[in-house]
């Protein structure tokens, strides 16, 4: 998705990290619970849902549908034993829900629960509600969509609610464009005030050759004079 952070983070790992924080919640009431690693309004977050199996017949849960508040960005993790399908409004492009479906011979067994991680962009609000529809293998459906009771009491099938804070926001990841490689500069001709190379250059070489020639000539004259004297 455009503007998506990079994901700068693995969904499965974060889901495992949040498991410990739900130990108390799971024992307090076998309801659908929601948690997030970065519950900031208007920001991206990894939101994870804990869905228990409450079937008195021991029937496994085979489908979980989570209603989304028309979020602008959403992506799912790859979960063993489950497939995921996002429902998107064709007109606005907003994501309305996500449905996790168990593959054959899989699902949430009796006295068990499953974690469903989802990366989304949270709405700009004080809190967000995620109604959940839980479907069992025998066709039974449980709608976790009831609001809090007057006075703050909890209904029989409460919708999971995530409180949001005002910040701080996490910076978005930017991929810098590498600068263009500059072409090497080439001098067309040396300038008049250019300094000679450090190793002497052609001028010093010519002087050395001339000095050597004079030395050879001097040696030849000496040899000729010595022969005349003998």
From TrEMBL:
Keywords: Membrane, Signal, Transmembrane, Transmembrane helix
Chain residue ranges for the region called Disordered: 139-205
Transmembrane segment boundaries: 208-226
Gene3D superfamilies in the record: Uncharacterised protein YcnI-like PF07987, DUF1775
InterPro entries with a match to the protein in the record: YcnI-copper_dom, YcnI-like_sf
Secretion signal, residue range per the UniProt entry: 1-26
Domain named YncI copper-binding: residues: 31-163
Ranges of compositional bias, category Low complexity: 177-192
Pfam families: DUF1775 (PF07987)
Name this polypeptide is given: YcnI family protein
Taxonomic lineage from the root: Bacteria, Bacillati, Actinomycetota, Actinomycetes, Mycobacteriales
